[in-house]
Design a protein that fits this description.
- The mean pLDDT is 95.
- The longest helix has 18 residues.
- The protein has one domain: TIM Barrel, CATH 3.20.20.
- The protein contains 9 helices and 8 strands.
- It has 225 residues and is of the alpha/beta class.
- Strands 7-6-5-4-3-2-1-8 form an 8-stranded parallel beta sheet.
- Bound molecules: pyridoxal-5'-phosphate.
- The site of pyridoxal-5'-phosphate has 12 residues, from strand 8 and helix 9.
Length: 225
């Protein structure tokens, strides 16, 4: 794939996706490993939210553009990286422990910011995966809700990786159930607005199961190098 062709493809891919996604669904362009130039192409085509897994890479991309987009952290956040992360990101989609929440709260207080977060659910109960087990989500949400410089805005899940996206459905359904229950509880200082589920091979299933935020990399930027 030559450079010009590749960049045109990125624009086309974003436009096609934005046309396909129903109203009210947010597209997060999962940009790990992509250059600032590639990210800029996607933004020029209408992408409003960039999802990043690495802080260094994000800072580099941000330095070379001043586009008015949201930057979401979607990777695994280590506590020693939180200070930088809260400066760089507009949302953290991968909150998975009280200890991490307390660090985010503390660092946000220092810079006078309230960080919107999604709680990451380990819906596949996979040992090697990050996220909170489904049965522990409610307790974590309640604990975190009392921290003044963090605002819980919903849930995120990856689910196990399958060749057949249909196999992801039960994990999306379970996460949706938790989302609905928490919404009903109507906890103080908790807003169950975003349900972030679905990637390139599974986003259509996720949409059927109630996702209103999808994180898509390959279908925008091509196969990762
Ligand atoms: C890379 C990544 C995605 C996107 O994956 P694709 O299969 O390339 O669409 C979504 N969510 C997270 C957390 C990721 O790390």
């Amino acid at each position: 794939m030559d450079l010009i062709g590749g960049q045109m493809a990125i624009k086309e891919n974003v436009k096609t996706l934005l046309e396909e996604l129903p109203d009210g669904v947010e597209l997060v362009g999962a940009a790990k490993g992509r250059t600032a130039r590639e990210i800029k192409e996607a933004i020029d085509a209408g992408l409003k939210i960039v999802g990043e897994n690495y802080i260094q890479e994000t800072m580099l991309a941000q330095k070379s553009m001043n586009e008015d987009v949201g930057w979401h952290f979607i990777g695994h956040l280590q506590r020693n990286k939180v200070k930088k992360a809260v400066e760089v990101f507009d949302m953290i989609e991968s909150l998975d422990s009280l200890r991490l929440a307390e660090e985010i709260d503390k660092r946000c207080r220092e810079i006078g910011k309230v960080m919107p977060v999604l709680v990451e659910v380990n819906s596949g109960r996979e040992e090697q995966k990050f996220g909170v087990l489904p049965e522990d989500v409610e307790e974590l949400v309640k604990e975190v809700s009392s921290l003044p410089n963090i605002k819980i805005m919903g849930l995120m899940t990856m689910g196990p990786r399958f060749g057949n996206p249909e196999d992801s459905r039960p994990y999306f359904q379970e996460t949706r159930k938790i989302f609905g229950r928490l919404k009903q509880l109507d906890l103080p200082d908790v807003e169950m607005r975003y349900l972030s589920m679905g990637m390139t091979n599974s986003y259509r299933i996720a949409l059927e199961e109630g996702a209103n935020m999808v994180r898509i990399g390959t279908k925008i930027f091509g196969e990762r190098r």
